Structure formats: C-alpha cells, structure tokens
TrEMBL record:
Gene3D superfamilies: EF-hand (1.10.238.10)
Example of a GO MF term: calcium ion binding
Limits of the EF-hand domain: 5-40, 96-131, 137-165
Top-level taxonomic group: Bacteria
Name assigned to this protein: Calcium sensor EFh
C-alpha cells in the first residue's frame, strides 16, 4: 500500500493530469496531456516520436481505466485512490516505467544530444504541470554527478524513483518538480 509520502508526491501529478479540474482523471484529460507534450519542439517535428508519446500516455490511461473498472469504480473515471493503486503495482512493472522514461527523455532532449540539460528538465516539469512551475534547486538534487546534465540511465533511475520510491531522501522524488511541504 502506498505511503502518505508517496500519496503526497503523486497528488501533484494527479492534479496536473486533471485538465478540467473535476477531481477525476478521464480519457479527455490524457488527450489534453498528449497535446501538451506534442507542443515540445522535438515531438512536434517528429511524427514517430509524436506517436510514441501518444502511445505511452494513452497506454497509461488504458491501464488506469482498466484498474478503475477492476476495482468497481467504473472504467473511464479514475480517482486518486485508483491512481495510488496503480502506483502500488508499479514495482512489479519496472519495464513499463522505464519505457515511459525513455520516451519522455526523447521528448525533452530537445537538441538530441542524449542528455537532459537544466532548461530541458524545466520544460519537462512545465509540460507535465501545464504551466510554468518554479523549481528552485530541483535540478541540482537530480544531477548527482554535478556534470550539468542527466544522461539516459540517470534519468531512468530518477524516473523510477519518482513513481516507486517511498524514501523521501531519494533524489528522484523531485523529478516532476519540488515536493509540497508536509502538512
């Protein structure tokens, strides 16, 4: 069962995904998320990458919708509890989480140099949230080797930590932006 810490960090993503703000995730919310990602220059310029992004994001929608139906919530409407039930399943699906990281990496690696810069990471956060988001020292926490970039393996590890970790000290917890202060 996901911890209170995991729930707090994933809540910001739930709110970012909920495009219409109705407190539920629906297919239209994921379609809106796909549209946000399609605006990134590398995605907009590449039909194959556009399709990969769409496939990954809508694939997660289908997983969530099926889980909602399985849990008796009804397909097509996902609440925070269903999202957290999916988070509970992610440790048994590391390949799917890493495949998502790979696609997101390609989408934000604007210049295709195989590294995510501070500015590219900022675009990732802004795209997820659908707005400009202050990030303070988030990138410095992620960039463990201090080289000014996140390489693909580093990015995948951080992505996995964000979605799976229950350890507040792991740097990947801020992959999608700063964490809200504990209540």
């Amino acid at each position: 069962m996901a911890s209170g810490f995991q729930r707090a960090k994933v809540r910001a993503m739930f709110e970012a995904f909920d495009a219409d703000g109705n407190g539920l995730l629906e297919e239209a919310d994921f379609a809106a998320l796909v549209e946000r990602w399609r605006r990134l220059p590398r995605v907009a310029a590449g039909p194959e990458l556009t399709e990969r992004v769409r496939g990954v994001l809508m694939g997660w929608w289908h997983h969530l919708s099926a889980l909602a139906a399985e849990e008796g919530e009804g397909a097509g409407r996902v609440d925070m509890d269903v999202l957290m039930a999916m988070v509970d399943r992610l440790p048994s699906m590391p390949e799917a989480v890493t495949a998502t990281a790979d696609t997101i990496f390609d989408a934000v690696d604007e210049n295709g140099d195989g590294r995510i810069s501070r500015a590219e990471h900022q675009r990732l956060i802004d795209t997820w949230h659908g707005r400009d988001t202050a990030t303070a020292d988030v990138f410095d926490r992620l960039d463990q080797d201090g080289d000014g970039y996140l390489g693909r393996p580093e990015f995948a590890t951080l992505w996995l930590q964000f979605w799976i970790s229950d350890d507040p000290a792991e740097p990947g917890n801020v992959m999608c932006g700063p964490l809200a202060p504990a209540a």
